[in-house]
Amino acid sequence: MSDTRSPDLFAALDEASLSRFHLRAVIVSGMGFFTDAYDLFIIGIASTLIKPEWHLGSAELSVLNSMTLAASFIGAFVFGRIADVIGRKRVYWLVAAIMVVGAIGSALAPAFWVLIAFRFVLGVGVGGDYPVSAVLMSEYANRRDRGKLVGTVFSTQALGLIIGPLVALALLGGGVSHSLAWRVMLGLGAIPAAAVLYLRSRMPESPRYVAQVQGRHERAARQAFDVAQGALGSVQPDAKDARHGMGLKAFLCQRRYLIMLIGTAGTWFLFDYAYYGNTISTPQILKLVAPHASLMTTTALQLAIFVIAALPGYLLAIARMDRIGHRKLQWIGFTMMALCFAVIGLVPGMTTTVAPFLIVYGISYFFAEFGPNTTTFVLPAELYPISMRATGHGISAGTAKVGAFIGVFVFPFFQSALGLRGTLIVTAVMSLAGALLTLVLPEPAGRSLEELSGADDVIAEAEQVIAEAHRNSAAQRDSAAQRDSEAGADVRLG
User: Fold this and answer.
1) Within a domain: 467
2) Environment class of residue 171 by beta-carbon count within 10 Å: exposed (0-12), middle (13-18) or buried (19+)?
3) DSSP sequence for 132-168
4) How many C-beta atoms lie closer than 10 Å to residue 3's C-beta?
5) Which of 35, 38, 85, 375 could connect to 192 by a Cys-Cys bridge, CB 3.0–4.6 Å?
């Protein structure tokens, strides 16, 4: 094993069959991402209860609904970079701990600005979880099933979308007071985050990261062998090993990666503007379409949309994305979303008749999940070199959350100025722009991470340099030996 070379290590990971380790990695990452989704989207329901209790205006409501998204921008940038510098594993459990603190603090907040502060803390943890969960799962995964595995981690968002309204219905239907109900909703997010703290501390570092960034090839090779057998062992840090990789300045100065960042960050920004603005504002949207519906009714309708439309979209994306292609699936989803929102915005009566609205709105949700909501999470975890992979994903996710923040923050103002139809036409334009921008990205499905990032070329070049150095060293030794021999002959003759 000591003479195992990096290409053999990568091949072992790329060609490994799906194993119990892959399943464990999906569960551990997925539980954290379920928490991310629950925490991000539950505020849409909780804020409808907080608003009358604390007499919030439109501006304060916008801040409350969007603060976690604004903070996740910071978390994604900061922890994405940290994960490339110190390793994925350390960040993996740290962000879960931050989410626990943020959720508990939000539930116990005695006043509006205290709640905002803890929602900010929560958002930093949520944002940090995006790049590390995606990248670590991508680097564990084999080549054939990478989209399926990373997409499955992301699909736990569907559970967060469903569990949130179920919790709200149970609390409100059970007669729990509104002032207690919203605190329970926000506090429950701490439970799954706390549950994965121990599990994440036991997960190993990425073998690809250990080999390519930390330079510990023998240890990484043993891990790759274990992955192929379905039992990845733990990795201990080794401070004396050299670190290798691209710096942030070099990354940002390369045209190839700048174009990729424009593609991954730009498409994710456009999607999150459309998706979060609508999803978090869905209770308000349904209230506009059905003004006489009760809170229980609008919550039940929201749950129905998620279960009937969104959940099948997630499942079908997982099953088919590696066959269809990750970029192609994203383009299809964006295009269909644009069509659905254009129909709602342009066809008279669509926003005043409940059944047609719910059908088209539901179809938009299906193609959001069977498309860019899944692929914008997967693509940045595949396209960048390993020493900048979490950084690239973090920049993309952070930029996306800026779009989400804008979408949520401006929705009440757009709705007042443009009406619901005009607001959704803007969403259709954003979706169409996302479809066009998707075309700048390469297709990663079925290709190794090293091929996508150019690491194969780097490895080949490094091997050539090493071989040339060995040849030069041997030539120098031969030359020195010849000089010594000639000098000895001269002495003897003298």
Assistant:
1) no
2) buried
3) HHHHHHHHHS-STTHHHHHHHHHHHHHHHHHHHHHHH
4) 8
5) 35
